[in-house]
Amino acid sequence: MSTMHVTIITPDETVFSGDATMVVGKALDGEFGIQPHHMPLVSALAPGAIRIDHEGKREEFILPGGFLEVENNSVYITTASCEGA
Predict the structure, then answer these.
(1) CB under 8 Å to 56, separation ≥6 — which residues?
(2) Separation of alpha carbons 15 and 9, rounded Å
């Protein structure tokens, strides 16, 4: 199964770093789903949950907003803070 690398970063720590098959969340202009080999993208995130599917399980993180960048089969999420759901 194809994967992409996902990283969630706050000013204090790297909250998540690993390979995933799907990232789902909400941008300021609506919901999104990112799968491996997605086209390059930069988006502002709305407050809410980011779901990451990896290693056969689903993990959710609650963000106050932030930014998402997709490039070279990697997803980078930067946010002021982050909590596991």
Answers:
(1) none
(2) 6
The number of helices, as runs of H, and strands, as runs of E, in the chain is: 0, 10
pTM: 0.94
Superfamily of domain 4-84 in the CATH hierarchy: F0F1 ATP synthase delta/epsilon subunit, N-terminal (2.60.15.10)
pLDDT score for 85 = 64
pLDDT digits (tens, 9 = 90+) for 7-51: 999 999 999 999 999 999 999 999 999 999 999 999 999 999 999
